[in-house]
Amino acid sequence: MARLAGISVRTLHHYDSIGLLVPGARTAAGYRLYTDSDLLRLQQILIGRELGLPLEEIRRSLDDPHFDWKAVLLDQRERLRKRARQAEAMIRAIDAALAAVDGSQKKGEMKMEDLFDGFNPSQYAEDARRQWGKSEAFAESEKRTRRYTPDDWKALKAEQAALYSDAYSALKAGKAPSDAAVMDIAERHRMSIDRWFYPCSCAMHRGLASMYESDDRFRQSIDKHGEGLTSFLAEAIRANAARHQGRRT
């Protein structure tokens, strides 16, 4: 099932544990058995994730007795076609940048707007609004990132990569998430968010940890730095938040 869908076994186990995709049956040895209906449900889950929907929203939709498979599939097809058109526009923008870098296009001939054809940050903003609403943190993040230059984004990416590398080294060394050195890495992670995006309290950081674990996009993005890193970092964030709470009391 995992190979067929191109996802990890751990993801299937997670979907089962939260009641999102419970297999139709099990073997005597306890192995999960999936039916054709389970396959269709998994396809809907993966399409929903690709479109940026939270897992709980997908579960509620699929469990709705009035769920209309055909209407939903038609809507999803149209939304994905729109995304495909945008991807094609982004490829044209990359081609324009390559032409400029290679010198095959003179500066006077290049239209700067061609470099940004197809880039539509609103799709990510909508996902963030769905998660956070019109919060002060969201508004502050938009305000800050609007001013960032390519060098700023490069510095941010390098800083995050270093954090994840240190965290994974601690994981491989067998350290517990509650180890002081690991909690210090979690604190660096919190302060990085605080510095680059918005004021990030320990309570907010703890909420982010839960989102990292429940959202496959975050899990995949973090786990590419090391298998199991998402859960390890999330536990370290919670331990660090508890440490700060203890200091205040």
Short note summarizing the structure:
By secondary structure, this protein is mainly alpha-helical. The chain has twelve helices and two strands, in the order ααββαααααααααα.
Describe this structure in words.
This protein is mainly α and 249 residues long. 69% of the residues lie in helices and 2% in strands. The protein has 12 helices and 2 strands; from the N terminus they run ααββαααααααααα. Strands 1-2 form a two-stranded antiparallel ribbon. Helix 9 packs across helix 12.
Summary keywords:
single chain; 249 residues; mainly alpha; Multidrug-efflux Transporter Regulator, Chain: A, Domain 2; Globin-like; 3 domains; two-stranded antiparallel sheet; 12 helices; 2 strands
SSE blueprint:
Elements: H1 2-5, H2 9-17, E1 25-26, E2 32-33, H3 36-50, H4 55-63, H5 69-102, H6 122-132, H7 136-145, H8 150-172, H9 180-196, H10 202-214, H11 216-223, H12 229-248
Antiparallel strand pairs: 1-2
